[in-house]
Design a protein that fits this description.
Blueprint lengths: L1 H17 L3 E10 L9 E9 L3 E6 L6 H14 L17 E5 L4 E8 L2 E7 L6 E9 L2 E10 L2 E8 L17 E7 L4 E11 L7 H8 L6 E3 L2 H13 L3 H6 L2 H4 L10 H17 L20 H5 L2
Parallel strand pairs: 6-12
Antiparallel strand pairs: 1-2, 1-11, 2-3, 3-4, 4-5, 5-6, 7-8, 8-9, 9-10, 10-11
Length: about 300
């Protein structure tokens, strides 16, 4: 009986610890996507904080998980193609920022064609904490400033929320960053809500379904320099990897249950990708020049050569 109880205790303990809990903080990001335009855009971003790490990302696609799930299930059931672009809103930003606790190692993760790549970003913020205090929403906050990415930033943090974290790559203040913006007000994040998520799963349904149909969700590590060169080339020809796998015969075939051909679908996907890349020429971090040549293999892809 003692042995049975010991086994039962271990099983219950393991199950309990498998249930990850996360604190999800919602930020309204207001930003200026084009340098020479007065247009201001908005998006909701999330910062999910667990015991081991935090994940920052655009919440647009994840927020539409239920719509995507219904559409995918219908396509799988009817064996027919459905144009998802007519159903969902596309994200403004495709990357994730993962900060590992307690070292606060940062990893920038984004997709290049069918694969995910990530590079470590060693950032040490030098904060100047100032005496000014301000009430922002329900939070008592204090002012701090820093320089980062070619911009000067002003942050307001709250010690009422005991996480030394914040949106995007920002961290290192004695409380959660409630608001942060650059002096030009090109980018401004403001905390708009939060909730606790029991049984937290890092991957959204759309990410899981991508993996099911050939787009890897495992992150291949690489360097920042190699990533930026490969990504710049990918932006010039976003369908290049797919095109290599599609013969003229396949290109002329109709998508299941649809009048659109595989080639037409690819052209539409290419336009969407280029529209996405061209929609923002005013990045958060002001870029260094990146030479663009042939797509350089990175991480595990390079090792296959």
């Amino acid at each position: 009986m003692k042995n049975i109880l010991s086994i039962l205790f271990v099983a219950v303990f393991a199950f309990a610890n498998a249930q990850e809990t996360a604190n999800r903080f919602f930020y309204e990001l207001t930003f200026k996507p084009k340098k020479d335009s007065t247009k201001i855009d908005k998006v909701i971003a999330t910062l999910d904080i667990t015991s081991k790490k935090s994940i920052y990302q655009d919440y647009t696609v994840a927020a539409q998980d239920s719509i995507i799930k219904l559409a995918v299930e219908e396509m799988e059931k009817t064996k027919s193609f459905k144009d998802m672009s007519k159903l969902i809103k596309m994200p403004k930003f495709s990357y994730k920022i993962v900060k590992t606790y307690p070292e606060m190692k940062e990893q920038f993760v984004d997709r290049i064609s069918m694969n995910l790549f990530g590079y470590e970003d060693d950032i040490k913020f030098k904060w100047n904490i100032l005496p000014e205090k301000e009430k922002i929403g329900e939070y008592n906050t204090q002012k701090a400033t820093t320089d980062f990415g070619g911009r000067k930033w002003t942050a307001w943090f709250s010690t009422d929320i005991p996480f030394q974290d914040g949106p995007y790559k920002f961290y290192g203040l004695p409380g959660l960053i409630v608001k942060i913006e650059d002096t030009e007000k090109d980018y401004s994040w403001k905390l708009s809500g939060n909730k606790k998520i029991e049984n937290y799963e890092e991957l959204s349904y759309s990410e899981k379904i991508n993996a099911k149909y050939g787009m890897s969700n495992s992150v291949t590590p690489t360097s920042k320099e190699k990533f930026e060169k490969a990504y710049a080339t990918f932006k010039k020809d976003p369908m290049g990897e797919f095109r290599q796998k599609i013969t003229p015969e396949i290109s002329s075939m109709k998508m299941p249950g649809s009048d659109i051909t595989v080639g037409e679908m690819m052209k539409k996907q290419e336009k969407m990708a280029k529209d996405f890349f061209n929609s923002n020429d005013n990045p958060i971090e002001k870029p260094n020049s990146v030479s663009v040549g042939n797509l350089e293999k990175v991480g595990k892809e390079k090792d296959k050569k």
